[in-house]
Amino acid sequence: MSELLIPATVAFRPNGSPYSPIYGDIYHSVVGSVAQAQYVFLQGNSLPARWQGRPVFTVLETGFGMGINFLSTWAAWRADSSRGGHLHFVSIEKHPFAASDLRLTHAATIDDAPVAVLAHTLADAWPALTPGTHTLAFDNGQVTLTLIFGDAVTILPALDLRADAFYLDGFAPAKNPELWTPSVFESLGALANEGATFSTYTSAGDVKRALLHAGFEYKKVPGFGWKRAMLIGKYLPG
Fold first, then answer.
1. pLDDT > 70: percent of the chain
2. Does 39 reside within a domain?
3. CATH of residue 73
4. CA distance 78 to 88
5. Is residue 104 one of the residues assigned to a domain?
6. pLDDT digits (tens, 9 = 90+) for 33-70
7. Is 56 within a domain?
8. Which among 141, 134, 136 is positioned nearest to 124, based on CA atoms?
9. Full residue range of the structural domain in which residue 154 is found
């Protein structure tokens, strides 16, 4: 990975929601970043119940963004007395924030105290913005964050892991179509562990067709906030 990274830029819409000038899309609903992560990605993947009793549980996320999904997952893991032995969270980000900008966006948008504490810990450990893999260990090694700075389109086919849950959280398909193609979902299917699930904020028709083509079964459920619908489902190996 020799390409230069273009960092994310801090920007806010008049209603206070952070957005990306690169993609012209918001990072999360104005209804709430942590609430969205909890509803769409934790509840959408039946967590924390599915990681309980597991020696290792691996989450693969297609867009790290501000890290709210990771922070909310970490907070839920910490709060669960029946959690498994190790949480491995793998996330890809093409345009990562600098540590100072990450702190700024967190301060402006996180309204959950336990998550805010973890956000400070994450920012303190944030790596330099260099392409490639950065491994961060937390909670005495019980939580590992594998951050990969680069393009998911080329990174996913090269990964060697088995994911138990997929957080499909790139920007909207209309804004970032490269992250929602059949080939991306085929790469995800190749990384799916037995019983792997997924969730995503979107319910676009092209996404549904690409999921089916790659071996995923989906269900449309009520969306978060003002969003009418979202998708959850699982991988069904052929």
1. 98
2. yes
3. 3.40.50.150
4. 13
5. yes
6. 899 999 999 999 999 999 999 999 999 999 999 999 99
7. yes
8. 136
9. 19-235
